[in-house]
Structure formats: C-alpha cells, structure tokens
Amino acid sequence: MKTPKPAPFPVRPVYALLLVAAAALLWLLAQPRPGLRIDRLKPVLAPEKGTPPPAVPDRLRVATYNLEHFTDGRHDEPGRTPEVFVNHARDAAAIIAEVDPDVLVLQEIENGRTLEFLNEQFERPYAYIYISKLRQTSGENERLNLALLSRVRPHNVRQLGFYNLGGKSRPARGSLAAEFDLGDGSSLLVYAIHLKSNFGEMPRNQAQRAIALHQIAADAVAERLQNDPAPTSVLILGDTNVDPDCPAFADDPSLEPLAGSYVDLWRGRPIEERTTIPTRLAGETGDPLLVFPPSAFDRIFASKNLVARGPWRVGRPETVQKGTDTANNLTQPGFNGHVSDHHIAYVDLTRNPNYVPPPPPPAQP
What we know:
By secondary structure, this protein is of the alpha+beta class. Helix content is about 20%, strand content about 25%. The protein contains five helices and 14 strands. The strands form two sheets. The chain has a seven-stranded mixed beta sheet, covered by helices on one side. Strands 2, 3, 4, 5, 12, 13 and 14 form a seven-stranded mixed beta sheet that branches. Helix 2 (about 80-100) crosses helix 3. It starts with 10 loop residues before the first helix and ends in a 14-residue tail after the last strand. The mean pLDDT is about 90.
C-alpha cells in the first residue's frame, strides 16, 4: 500500500495573504495621526537661489487683511466671474498700497493664482509669496486659506494644521507661521490666524478659538526656546472673530490662551479708532438680520518684549477704514467698490536704540 503524498504547501494563497496584510499595514501607517500637524510651505513666488536678501528696514510694517472670499472666479458661485475677481483684486491692491506693509498676511485666499495677480497690481511687488494648504475639520481641503506676502526674506515658513486634533471642539482651519531674521541678532515670528466664526454653537466656537490659540502659543514657546539666547519677538495677527471690548464678547474666553504672555494692542481703544468690521446697513435690498455693531475682529497680539526692553518696539495699531459697502450688507466683493467686510489693520515695529543685549552665556568648560 502506497503512502499518500502530503498536500502541497499553499504557497500562493499564503503569499497573497501576506501581500494583503502588508498593504493593510502600509495603509494604517499612512493614516494621519491625532495631534498638531506642522508642514513646511513652498513659496508661490521667491527670488532665485543665491539672490542676496533685501536689507531689513529700521521700521518694519506688518499688516493683516481679510479679503472676503478672494477666489479666482473659476467654478465659483453664480456672479463670481473672473471679471469680478479682477475688480476685487485691483480695489484690494489700492488699499494695501496705501498702507504699503513690508509683511502682509491675508485671510480667505483661494490659491496662488489669485496672489500672483494681486501682486502684479503693485508698483512695488512683493518678492516672497506663500499660501497655506489647510484642511477643514471634515478632512476636506480648505478653499479659503491664509497667505503671506513679504518684502523681507522669511524662513521656516510653516503651516500649523489643526484638523487632526481630537474631539468635537478641534479648531477649524489652522495657522501660517513665518520667521524673519531682523539683522541684529534677533528674530521676528509672525503667525497669521483666522479663528472660528460666531455661526453655530457658542461654546463650541469659543473652544475652537481657544484651542487654536493654545496650539499657536505653544509653538511660539518652542521656537523661542530653540532660538535662545538670541531674542525672538512674536506677532500673532489676523481675524479672531472676537472683540473683547464689545459687550457681546465681554465674557468670551476665546483669547485667554494669550493672556499673560501677549499684549492685545487694540484693548481700550475707542471703537471709532479700532473698527475693522464696520456696521453694514441693510439698505433697501439688504438683510436687516445681518446688521451688527462695529467691532475689531482683526486683532494684533505682541509678545511682551515688543512693549518692554526688547530689541524692537511695537507701535499702536492702525486701520484704513475703506473698501466696505456699508449701505448694503449683501453687496459682494468686486461690486460697487466693495473689497471686504473687514478693514486692513497694521502695526509698525521700530528698532529700540536703547536696547542692551543680554550678556553671552558663560563658556562651557
């Protein structure tokens, strides 16, 4: 009687199973991990490598402007055509040129094409342009991003993405961060922000804003520590959707993560001076339910060394109150001279002639 041969080893099924398991493992490893995601940004526009950087002026002007749905008119909602975008960009450029900032951060920017066209409208175009590539809390790509235009060379330009943070109160959008070598051994960190709006549930909105600022403040601490002992100044500026001097936001905790380490430069200023969101009346064809009191949503926070004995001093923030159709709150950007429901806000940094650098650290044995 012959001994039956053993069944052959199932090489092909096992091999296929191993391939499936390896693919599943690679897929799991590729999934975004919870927490803050920091990505380096490539420039939309920058000088060729080897080009000497421009000198840092003794007065550095930094501005923020929410351009209200600054999209290129391609595949947009009805009425938002390329021709409307051109009008929007030219009117925006005229206001920006009046301020003439050295560093400009923008909110609600669709893509790099819109920035390149905007830059072409200036007599003195910006040499460096960056735009974020943020995601919404749903994971979808954010259509309205943050942007940086600068005449001073930035480095370490990054985006802080919040969409992987856990919990229902994870913030919308993110932040764009850039560092500038000020040429005197000190640095400036600039964070562009656009915090959660006031639409939806108030507690969740407040939590999203506060968590976003907490993440930004923590990043600034890490960057300043990395630069130590060289001094680093910080500006955090943009659309916060909060004005703590307005009664409606008197008890709003959104800005508390910056308390103690930063100075809110608009605090205490009369409303007529600090208005960056003017009242837009309904007119004959507008919406009476969308008439709100004036406020200063576009805020500028300065690290304490900018108001004390640091290498640079910060001045009072200012705003150019132009570019808003206040007679009809349904006028869209690009029509009737309406650029945005926000006004541009800016601040000047100047070198401190009385600054005394800290002594160098003792030599290590």
